[in-house]
Write a structure and sequence with these properties.
148 residues, 2 domains, two-stranded antiparallel sheet, TATA-Binding Protein, alpha+beta
Length: 148
Amino acid sequence: MIKEDVLLGGEESGGIAVKGHIPERDGIWMGLIIWEFMAKSGKTLDELIEEVYAIVGPFQFERNDLHITEELKQKIIANCKANNYTSFGKYQIREVQTIDGFKYFFDDERWVMIRPSGTEPVLRTYAEAPTLAEVREILNATAQTICN
């Protein structure tokens, strides 16, 4: 946010930072911004969330931490780097991004990401899909593929 023209930044723990304020998460400031927007728009928080879903569509997201040996973690990362995965279960990989881990896109609404912990023998897997049931199916298929 300091080097680029970034309006908003967030992290998975829920911390959010905005342009023009400190380049660090600030829950009280974000709460005040949302409260101000609710007052100016006359909308409830639920109504504002529904507006977001109307724009981006419904989605569900979940993370699964795979507690595995360091040896298996390194093997999986090597497979990711070598592009050895073409699918996870029935989900065929269409595109891969390697900006912050290995993010595998299946279509415009479904993806899984594999990120190693740098401090412990844990592999974090994240998935997004239209329903929570499908998110869990993707996470399970990914774990079965990479851990075997």
